[in-house]
Design a protein that fits this description.
about 260 residues; mainly alpha; 10 helices; single chain
């Protein structure tokens, strides 16, 4: 049950963020949005480093790789970024035509791409949680229950603004609040699904654990650099995104070190 709760915590973050549509206005203040995007970026970068890349390097060192212990992490990060790059090429990109609105149809198209982008980028986050909990269940990986929980909580924190950023624009475009909440929530359902599939493949995962941990980190870092930071930095008040990044990074670092 502890593993089940750990897998569902990130999904709960998305659900709570989507529920903002019932309590807030139909549009998210631009300053608040930049702050939340920066905060989510900081959480994801810190989670990638402290919860994924560092354990991957430590496991490589324990396996006797010595000074070459960085190789699995480097290869995994590169593969994770390449994987997300490929998916971004295949699936319509979030920013396509975003700066050329052509009425409600174009706005709905942008929102649809936003839902697709967030849903797509939730997959590596689900994989990250699944890999960590698979390693925890197998034992001997150096990953503690508190450390795995810290990663779940960190991803849930950064999922909160994602849920709000999806559901509130949908409501503002004429959709009912219930429908907007449903779409925002469903964007996060892929996370526990990806996590469960990853755990079911535990017997194959363990020998490749350093590569898979860093693969998930690379995918998450791609999301930060390609989507979150540009959105937080464009236009006015970009400094709020920077402040949010610092707060998110510090919070996730504290969670990981204190609980790990």
């Amino acid at each position: 049950m502890n593993v089940f709760y750990g897998l569902m915590i990130p999904f709960l973050g998305t659900m709570l963020g989507s529920a903002c549509v019932f309590f807030m206005s139909s549009s998210l203040n631009a300053r608040v949005q930049k702050l939340l995007l920066g905060f989510a970026s900081g959480v994801m970068v810190a989670a990638s480093v402290w919860s994924l890349i560092v354990p991957a390097i430590e496991q490589s060192e324990e396996s006797g790789m010595g000074k070459l212990a960085f190789l699995p992490a480097a290869a995994g990060i590169a593969l994770g970024m390449a994987f997300l790059l490929l998916l971004d090429v295949i699936i319509p990109h979030l920013h396509v035509n975003a700066d050329k609105p052509e009425g409600l149809k174009a706005s709905l198209k942008k929102t649809t791409m936003l839902v697709l982008a967030v849903t797509l980028h939730n997959i590596p986050e689900g994989m990250a949680v699944g890999v960590v909990f698979a390693a925890l269940m197998a034992g001997g990986s150096g990953i503690t229950a508190a450390g795995a929980l810290a990663l779940s909580i960190g991803i849930a924190i950064q999922n909160f603004p994602e849920g709000a950023i999806i559901s509130m624009p949908l409501a503002g475009e004429g959709n009912g609040k219930g429908k907007a909440f449903l779409y925002g929530t469903l964007s996060g359902i892929v996370e526990p699904i990806a996590a469960v599939i990853t755990i079911l493949l535990t017997s194959w995962i363990l020998p490749l654990l350093p590569y898979l941990l860093s693969f998930a980190a690379g995918a998450m870092l791609y999301v930060v650099v390609e989507e979150l930071i540009p959105e937080a930095s464009e236009g006015e008040h970009s400094n709020l995104g920077t402040v949010g990044f610092a707060l998110g990074f510090i919070l996730m670092m504290v969670l990981d070190v204190a609980l790990g």
